[in-house]
Design goal:
Serine Threonine Protein Phosphatase 5, Tetratricopeptide repeat; flat; two-stranded antiparallel sheet; 4% strand; mainly alpha; 147 residues
């Protein structure tokens, strides 16, 4: 199992069964940011499944597509960013960017910035709260001198 900090612990057998279904997913062509977030979410789990199946090279390309779709959703949602539904969408995009940044790219500082952005957009985002708390705790532990 690969534990993602937002609570995404996925079993390899379940993901292996889903991978063939996800092989034909196509990126949305609309200008609707929610469509891009939905697609990125589906592809996120495909990437996790590939990682768990030991296909790191394949997963890298999938996670790059996830990151691009999430950034596009953020860009497309910018004109309506003050609306509550848009803030929730932007929060989820930032959270998933944090998950990819932390768990795939191993960049703790960038992940922390994404989780903080998620919480600025929607302070009640439980996944971002948990991920940030776990990250801050682990960073604190890393900075303490070892006996």
């Amino acid at each position: 199992m690969i534990p993602f900090h937002g609570g995404h612990v996925l079993r390899a057998a379940a993901l292996a069964a889903l991978l063939p279904c996800l092989a034909h997913a196509e990126a949305p062509t609309s200008q609707d940011p929610a469509a891009h977030l939905n697609y990125a979410s589906v592809m996120f789990y495909k990437g996790v499944g590939l990682l768990q199946a030991g296909k790191a090279d394949e997963s890298r390309a999938v996670f790059q597509a996830v990151e691009a779709e999430l950034r596009l959703a953020m860009e497309l949602s910018e004109p309506k960013r003050a609306e509550p539904d848009t803030r929730l969408l932007r929060s989820q995009c930032a959270f998933l960017l944090g998950e990819v940044t932390l768990n795939v790219l191993n960049d703790r500082d960038a992940a922390k910035a994404h989780y903080e952005e998620a919480l600025r957009e929607y302070p009640e985002h439980d996944g971002a709260l948990r991920a940030l708390a776990g990250l801050v705790f682990s960073l604190d532990q890393l900075s303490k001198p070892q006996p």
